[in-house]
Amino acid sequence: MKTYLYLVIIGLVWCGASNAYSASPESNTSKLDFFHTFTHNIPAELALAKNDNKFGVMVFFSTPHCHFCNRMKATVFNQSSVQGYFRQNFQLIEINIESKQLMTDEQSQTTTYSEYAGNNRVRLTPTIVFLDQQGNQTYRHVGIIADPKEFIWLGEYVLTGQAQVKSFAAFKMNKRRNNNP
């Protein structure tokens, strides 16, 4: 009986902890509305970003069965503040690292999504890569960001060039210090 009670308590604590950082949705916007319709052509996406005066492209590497990817879609990408900020500043594409779908990479070479992920050393999902208008990688983040505000901070971190001068952890610490009275 003690073991059963112990397992129930552990289960309740774990369930509560896994939801501790999840945000409640601000809107009913579909999670699929976050990403642009991918042309399967990175140079074309970069040209669209340049034409729309955006920083560049944000590539979200994922798999359909990635729990953390799906959590970000359900609790971060569906937030209107996140959608507004990222759509204004980046072309947003998702790449399934297991897919054999053909695409064109930054060097105008034909490859598959899975080969593209491998060429970008994507081993874990989610991995988020930011490309400037010239196709240069400016920052790479591996792992979940469960807080919508922190995800917007990631965009600001890249957009303002802070990725070139300090770590994202230092940037977040500074943002927390300045945003909390």
Characterization of this structure:
The chain has about 180 residues and is α+β, with helices and mostly antiparallel strands. It has a single domain (about 30-180), classed as Glutaredoxin. It is built from 7 helices and 6 strands, in the order H-H-E-H-H-E-E-E-H-E-E-H-H. The chain has helices at about 1-20, 40-50, 65-75, 80-90, 115-120, 150-160, 170-180, and strands at about 55-60, 90-95, 100-105, 110, 125-130, 135-140. The strands form 2 sheets. The chain has a 4-stranded mixed β-sheet. Helix 4 (about 80-90) packs parallel to helix 6 (about 150-160). The longest helix has 17 residues, at about 1-20. The termini are far apart. The model is unreliable at about 5-30 (pLDDT under 50).
Secondary structure topology:
Elements: H1 2-18, H2 42-51, E1 56-62, H3 67-75, H4 80-89, E2 90-96, E3 102-104, E4 110-112, H5 113-119, E5 127-132, E6 137-142, H6 148-159, H7 168-179
Parallel strand pairs: 1-2
Antiparallel strand pairs: 1-5, 3-4, 5-6
Helix pairs in contact: 4-6, 6-7
Count of runs of 4 or more consecutive helical residues: 7
Could you name the CATH homologous superfamily? Glutaredoxin
The helix/strand series, from N terminus to C terminus, equals HHEHHEEEHEEHH
Helix/strand/pairing category: alpha+beta
Fraction of residues in β-strands? 15-25%
* Main CATH class: Alpha Beta
Q: Could you say how many structural domains there are in total?
A: 1
Q: Indicate the CATH topology.
A: Glutaredoxin
Main beta-sheet strand count, sense and barrel state:
4 strands, mixed
